[in-house]
Amino acid sequence: MPEGDTVFRAATLLRGALAGKPLTRCDIRVPRYATVDLTGTVVEEVLARGKHLLIRAGAHTIHTHLKMEGVWDVHPPGTRWRRQGYHARIVLAVEDAEAVGFDLGIVEVLDRDREAEAVGHLGPDLLGPDWDPAVAAANLARDPSRPVGLALLDQRVMAGVGNVYRCELCFLRGVHPATPVADAGEPAAWVDLAHRLLMFNRDRVSRITTGDRRPGRGTWVYGRAGKPCRRCGTAIRTGALGSAEDPDRKIDWCPHCQPRTGDGPAAPAP
């Protein structure tokens, strides 16, 4: 599942292939921007901002978001794509490389001075050079009655945490995801752990939160519904920590290691 570390790696890949080079092809397969052609423009910079990716070329910024299914591939020109062409949303080529964004959830071209419209709402970037844990902790504490499992997904709090890290953070902190922020422990500790987890995984293809690099041993609770907890042996439960914004997002937790406390909403259904 694409989260901040996934986008960080995508930006690193694209930067190495495109930065400092003029585009020899710019094919944007989104109706609104189908006539935009930045061919000849030099790619100045590629950077990640939480789950968002920005490609700066001349006076424009190409803003993309992977959402659930998106991926960026880079390969030598003429190489066969690993997904069928109808999945491609944007193709950017330079003399020695071709980058293809498949199934991207968002593709838009902005004037450089309009970047804030895309990412200005985001909190501190967990993997960014401007990471500020004090601001992130203050953002997390701002709504003390909010379930911590919802607050962690709010990119205005800190940018980069997705559902995998949300589940794993709650387990590692020993907190039920429906627990109000006020009852979930020191915000600075949540922020510090989130930063350490993403930093540890930013260069890894296989995400690890357990410290165990063996296949299938990388997570504590995420994706392990019905399986025994790696700490206590209790069956991992799964359910929806619903909200109007995100009604279908599932969360996994251990009912023994993460007991329900506080006055939050009803526990996620089994």
TrEMBL record:
The keyword DNA-binding applies. It is an enzyme of class 4 (lyase). This is DNA-(apurinic or apyrimidinic site) lyase. Residues 2-101 form the Formamidopyrimidine-DNA glycosylase catalytic domain. Keywords: DNA damage, DNA repair, DNA-binding, Glycosidase, Hydrolase, Lyase, Metal-binding, Multifunctional enzyme, Zinc, Zinc-finger. It comes from Rhodococcus indonesiensis. Belongs to the FPG family. It comes from the Bacteria. InterPro entries: FPG_cat, FPG_N, H2TH_FPG, Nei2_N, Ribosomal_uS13-like_H2TH, Znf_DNA_glyclase/AP_lyase. Its EC number is 4.2.99.18. PROSITE patterns: FPG_CAT, ZF_FPG_2. Pfam families: Fapy_DNA_glyco (PF01149), H2TH (PF06831).
